[in-house]
Design brief:
This protein has about 170 residues and is α/β, with parallel strands linked by helices. The protein has 5 helices and 5 strands, in the order βααββαβαβα. Helix 4 links the parallel strand 4 and strand 5.
């Protein structure tokens, strides 16, 4: 599944984002950043999708959705994270139309636990709630605006550290 990551303004591509860039996308995120087309401010999104061919899961997208989290100042609120996730999911859905067309489909999306480790304001529960709320709001807005039956039907939250995942 494509994976959503957050990116703060003026931050380097590092950590899991760097791994995704290098191993999954062969530098496509770095290329977009070098072109000045990279997420950072809230509301900005960078999407790099690939469609698999010749496999059992052919026709399904993989790649990354990078959503801007704004300045790294510890002030990211649950509402702002929800807004960032909504923007990322909307851009993802639009990109799916560009790549796969307007046929009805249910999509999966994976995401890191955004905002939790980097913001004193967000608990694990608040981060999870903002992620889910952002996807739900994006699905509703997308359907109301486009009248297309394309939505994110599954959200997988990826967390490396067991204690955080248990929380």
């Amino acid at each position: 599944d494509p994976i959503m990551v957050g990116h703060y303004e003026n931050d380097a591509i590092a950590g899991p984002e760097s791994l995704i860039d290098r191993e999954l996308l062969q530098g496509e995120l770095s290329e977009r950043r070098a072109l000045g087309l990279y997420a950072g401010p809230r509301g900005t999104v960078t999407v790099a999708l690939r469609v698999r061919h010749g496999r059992q899961d052919a026709g399904l997208p993989s790649g990354a959705v990078v959503t801007g989290l704004g300045p790294y100042d510890g002030a990211l609120s649950p509402a702002e994270l929800t807004e960032s996730v909504r923007s990322g999911v909307l851009r993802y859905l639009l990109q799916v139309i560009d790549v796969l067309g307007e046929a009805p489909r249910e999509l999966s999306l994976a995401t890191l636990l955004l905002g939790y480790n980097s913001s004193a304001n967000l608990s694990v529960a608040a981060s999870v709630e903002a992620l889910v709320r952002g996807v739900i709001e994006a699905n509703a807005r997308f359907q109301q605006t486009t009248r297309l039956d394309i939505r994110v039907a599954r959200l997988d939250i990826v967390e490396l550290y067991l204690d955080t995942a248990i929380t």
